[in-house]
Amino acid sequence: MKSKYTVLLFAYVASGFLITSKSQEKVETLEEVVVTGTGTEHLLRDVPVQTEIVSRKTLDSYGAKSIEDILGGLTASFSFEEGDMGSQTQLNGLGNSYILILVDGKRLHGDVGGENDLSQIDPQNIDHIEIVKGAQSALYGSDAIAGVINIITKKHHDEGVYIENTTRYGSYNDIRQHNGLGLTYGKLNSFTNFQLQHTDGWRNTTNEYTEGHVVNDSRKKTANEKTNWQIAEKLTYTVNKKSEVYASGSYHRKNILRPQDGHYPSCDVYTYDLMYKNAALSMGGKWKLKGNNTITADADWGKHAYFYNYTATTLTDGYDPLGRFTNYFPYFKGQKSLQSDQQRLLASVKGIFDLPAENKLSTGIEYRYDYLNAPMRTAEGSVDDWTGSIFVQDEFDLLSWLNVTTGLRVDKNQNFGFKATPKVNAMLSAKNFRLRLGWSQGYKTPTTKELYYRYLHVMGASTYFNMGNTDLTPQTSNYYSSSVEYRGKRLTMSVTAYLNKLENMIALVNVPVDEIPVDASSAYFGDGSGDVVARKYKNMEDARTQGIDLNTTYKICEDFTIGGNYSYLDTKAHEYEASKQKLVEVTIDGMAHHKWNAYANWGHRFGKNYKLGASLGTRGSSQRYYQNNGNGKPFQIWRLNTTHDLESSKKFTYRAEAGIDNLFNYTDTTMHPYHLGTNSPGTTFFVALSIKFKQGKNIKPTKITNSKTFNDED
Fold this sequence. Notes:
CATH superfamily: TonB-dependent receptor, beta-barrel domain
CATH topology: Maltoporin, Chain A
Number of strands: 42
Number of domains: 1
CATH architecture: Beta Barrel
Radius of gyration: 26 Å
Distance between the termini: 39 Å
Structural class: mainly beta
Largest sheet: 22 strands, antiparallel, barrel
Helix content: under 10%
Shape: globular
């Protein structure tokens, strides 16, 4: 849908450039420092690898309720389908399993190879977000083929006590609660973070296609009721001026309630809810050596467990009291069964060293161990996998205006042996312009789920039995990019063209029913396989994504900023079609040729203690393509948010927010289980109140005067 409102907004943006180009108001900017593109600190304008940032100021203006809300509304390269098991994310045409999500540089642990449970990220605790697109395996290893999202959390360096509370309430009983407590005593700093999220869910349509006919009174919801909460703690101890150590941990719980006790037995009601338990522990330290040389060491453990929580008597696969696997095992109300328990251990040591002739060397070693316990979904009950890695990267200035960054990573995987992934990036600088060119290889070993997992999936009139495949081979890619960026005091613009070519891409492919193992056929379907479609993970011949991304922001004056993003995408893949016994060309599921967003942020201080802000934004997408169950409709959605900041004293600050999402009440009423362009419930309202208390000495940010000076709290 190409709305007239989009045309009007961009016409307004363009006129704003012309009208205000001669404005004499002084506009000062404090540049961001980013780390994701190279693993080393750079001013945003000088980072050798093209990096996009969602700043803290933009986040404060937008008033988002979730990370999906942030990325979907403020960048054009992402698309989401929020489901019960997490968010199905796409970045420039490639899905979840190709996107690496980091929190403060550390991998977010979730469903390996499946949907990412982004509810583990507290949007109220985000300082800014760094996005690096394309294959980054040379630096980050497996999973980073589509790109990397690094969530940088807020840092609290105040001496004494810091307390904050944010309560957000919206339509459909949408509740978002955040609490933070920071304590600093001498060299010890503690920060405790709590978040709670709840929604009653909503239903956009009562129509459902199931069992060969349309049901007009389906109870299935577009988004189910869910509640999740998380508590996290981080302790940091500053040993001396050159070293510090830390320890952190978190526990996350999520419950999803689904329609029950209906009269359509397997389509619109369920006999169990879903429950997730996540936990994480980390420890490490950083040591500064002579000059700017540093060494860091980290160890991380994560657990992601997924359960069925039964709400009625259910006969299904399970284990009897003697520990024997049996079909039609009874579960009763209140009981739960483990579907999968995924655990991961990561350990790494990394050094960054300044060398002569303007060289910066990064090198390190990593070890990763993955464990999957799924008694009813793997033949052996549990499986594991490990990878050891060594990497090296050199950033060097050949000339004052030319930087070249090269890197190489060598992985040794338990099942697939050795693999080397290189990269080369070059950046040419000329005053406010930057030209960046890049080539990098991506590498991704099959996950334990793709190798061993098997499960039954009912969708509409079809029943699918999905199977792992131990004959899979690793996926590889070659990513090519070029970008031109202009970064002035007021105007920032960038254009990036890219091509990502994948080989041996893994996807679920229809196969003959007789490929279902005998033990699985008996367990799931009784005597024979029944009326079912068999699907198996297989390596596709090849795939490619290519496109152009445009980003721009313009600071009209100190109070007023406008911006917009546009993404063009085209994808192709070759998939084996069993019925034709040949490779056919297909579009990667979920692709949209065009996505866009635009925003206008205004804020003005009245007196010393009150600031009023307003943000108007829009986001949209053309049709999303799928091979099965229909395409997603095009859409465009508008959003308005207002902020009211009040500082009553040096210790207390208050913020109130009020906003409207989906101003023109667009809803996609496509029947279940066909694909939606957006699952928005229509016009929704929200309000929020934040209270912050500080007692102690504040550390003021240092204004940047050259490319070697920076401060995290910009």
